[in-house]
Amino acid sequence: MSEPSTMRSHRRALEYVANPDMAAFTVGQIAIAALRQDGTLSVETLRRHLARIASGREAEGAGATRVNPDMALAALRYIEALLQNEAA
Q1: Domain containing 76: what range?
Q2: Torsion sign, CA atoms 15, 17, 20, 21
Q3: What Å distances lie between residue 73 and 1, 23, 51, 69, CA to CA?
C-alpha cells in the first residue's frame, strides 16, 4: 500500500507547508526561477510552474528552487483562495 504523501491524485498539503509564510517563500522561489528563465512574471506563470511541481513534473529551470510538490500544492491553494476572496 502506498504512503499518503506519495499519492499525487488526492494528496493534501502537509500542515507545515499550508501557512502564509511558507506560501510566500514558495511563490518567491518560483518567481525568481520564472524571472531567470522567462524574464517575465505573471499569476499564470506562477500557476503553471507550481502546477508542474505539484504534479511531480519539475518545472524546467526550477530545479534550484528547493520547492517540493507539497509546497507547490499548498502555494497553489493559497493563491486560489486569495483570488477567490478578491472576486467575492
Answers
A1: 17-87
A2: positive
A3: 23, 9, 7, 6
Cβ atoms 70, 5 nearer than 8 A: yes
Q: Does 83 reside within a domain?
A: yes
How many Cα atoms occupy the beta-carbon half-sphere of 12 within 13 Å? 3
- The span from the CA of 29 to the CA of 81, in Å, is 20
- What is the model's pTM? 0.71
Q: Would residue 7 count as lying in a domain?
A: no
Question: Would you give the end-to-end CA distance of the chain in angstroms?
Answer: 41
Residue 51 is placed in which grid cell? 502546477
Retrieve residue 87's grid coordinates: 472576486
Domains: count for the chain: 1
Cell numbers linked to 37: 528563465
pLDDT per position as a tens digit, 32-87:
988 988 888 998 888 888 999 999 877 444 455 789 899 999 999 988 888 888 87
